[in-house]
Design goal:
By secondary structure, this protein is an alpha+beta fold. It is 38% helix and 17% strand. It is built from 8 helices and 18 strands. Strand 15 and strand 16 form a beta hairpin. The longest helix is centred in the middle third of the chain and has 110 residues.
Length: 467
């Protein structure tokens, strides 16, 4: 392409879309643009300034520059003829064809016979077909880009939620250890007080013994001094003052040996100290047989800080849609699954009217209906009726507390009314797969019940001993 041809091309190129003018318009500043490009620019920027020099257009409307438009058409035709000439210099006036097998242009006069076994199509059809393919690829890429952007956003939201989880865990850890530190500090002061009491007892006992001994020493000292004075007198004075009673005095009483209890009772102060403190600490802590897993909780569930109770949330919580989370039912699972042995846990529902307890298999679909056929075995209470997934059961009273007993080896899960340990229902033939404790609550109006959450009882509660 000659320099003159390139200069003309630059002159006929729109500064907005960087292509040859289509329906060109010229502003008062003599800068020209495609009519659509100019109006889109104005609409986007809410202005009527020139995109090049930023000078405001003095014209209320824009008119097509037909002279420039004709020049663009002539230039485009010339460009096409040059393209054709580039295919075959011997037949520049003959429109080229396109070989789809070799994906190249060819001269229909010189090369057509060489492509008889190939698929040869007109230039316009080849352009249309190939652009449709590229457009399809662009759409696929755009769709993948949108999916990637959505996934990226999910990852970022998940990371933010993980940061919030870490902050919550840190607050709870510090609060729990502060409570334990306060207990240990109080217990330390109590044990030191016991030590001081023992010191006081020992000191009083020692003072009593020393007091008696001091009195004995004073009496002996007085007698010795009196006798020594007699011994120092001269013969006449000594004999004149001597009395037979002085030599016939009885010998002093024998001194008592060291009495008992004069030392500290270290065994009382230090004996089993850590164990005694631990036993007292055991009274202030609880061991839950099931700890809830917040990562599985439906967004409409609110869990307690110690992860042992759940309630219906007034508003859906902002949590990521991670694979472990239930989205079909307002369910949360225990953090530990069981695949062997016998296990049980007690749950207080009070008079809550909309709940379900049971177990689910690890591979259960968390978005669909949950039934025994899909891996969910439960006892459910809705509108004063009790359901098992296999029908209804009739109870003589509404249980305030239910025991869930899982026997992985026999493949059964049973439900008992804790008040009298009467059997409510037993699911049988549960497959040998890891099973997780499952808990469900639904929305309950405040007027319907006093209880607003359900609670997993600690092992320290009466009657709760692990099998």
């Amino acid at each position: 392409m000659t320099e003159e041809f390139a200069a003309v091309e630059d002159y006929l190129t729109c500064a907005v879309c960087l292509e040859t003018f289509k329906e060109p318009v010229t502003l008062g500043c003599n800068h020209s643009f495609c009519s659509d490009c100019l109006h889109k620019y104005w609409d986007k920027n809410n202005t009527q300034n020139c995109p090049v020099c930023r000078r405001k257009s003095s014209k209320d409307g824009t008119l097509i520059n037909f002279a420039l438009k004709e020049l663009c058409i002539t230039f485009s035709d010339k460009l096409k003829s040059q393209d054709r000439a580039a295919v075959c210099s011997s037949h520049p006036e003959v429109p080229p064809l396109f070989c789809t097998d070799e994906t190249r242009l060819l001269c229909p006069v010189c090369e057509f016979s060489e492509h008889k076994e190939h698929t040869v199509v007109p230039l316009e059809q080849a352009e249309r077909d190939l652009k449709e393919q590229l457009q399809s690829q662009v759409e696929d890429l755009r769709r993948h880009r949108a999916e990637a952007q959505t996934l990226e956003q999910s990852y970022r939201e998940t990371q933010q939620h993980a940061h919030r989880q870490a902050e919550l865990c840190e607050r709870n850890i510090r609060a729990e250890f502060d409570r334990l530190h306060r207990f240990l500090k109080e217990e330390e002061e109590l044990q030191l007080s016991t030590l001081r009491e023992e010191q006081s007892r020992q000191a009083q006992n020692m003072a009593s013994q020393l007091g008696r001994l001091t009195e004995t020493l004073a009496s002996l000292e007085q007698n010795i001094q009196e006798l020594e004075k007699q011994l120092e007198k001269k013969a006449e004075d000594f004999l004149r003052s001597y009395s037979p009673a002085q030599s016939t005095k009885e010998a002093p009483d024998p001194l008592p040996p060291l009495g008992p209890g004069l030392l500290l009772n270290q065994a009382k102060v230090l004996g089993n100290l850590a164990y005694r403190v631990w036993k007292k600490m055991e009274e202030m802590v609880q061991d839950s047989p099931v700890v809830l897993d917040p990562n599985t909780a439906h967004p409409c569930l609110s869990l307690s800080d110690n992860l042992t109770s759940l309630a219906w949330a007034d508003a859906s919580l902002q949590v990521p849609k991670n694979p472990e989370r239930f989205s079909g039912y307002s369910i949360v699972l225990g953090s530990e699954g069981f695949s062997s042995g016998r296990h049980h846990w007690d749950v207080e529902m009070g008079d809550y009217s909309f709940w379900a307890l049971g177990v689910v298999k690890e591979s259960v679909n968390r978005e669909t209906v949950l039934l025994p056929d899909t891996g969910y075995w439960s006892l459910e209470h809705f509108t004063d009726k009790y359901y098992t997934g296999n029908g209804t059961v009739k109870l003589k009273q509404q249980p305030q507390k239910v025991r869930v007993q899982l026997d992985c080896d026999s493949g059964t899960v049973s439900f008992y009314d804790f008040s009298d340990m009467s059997l409510i229902y037993t699911h049988k033939d549960i497959p040998k797969e890891k099973l997780f404790p499952s808990f469900y609550v639904g929305p309950t109006a405040a007027a319907e019940c006093q209880t607003n959450n359900i609670r997993i009882c600690a092992r320290s509660d009466p009657g709760l001993n692990q099998d």
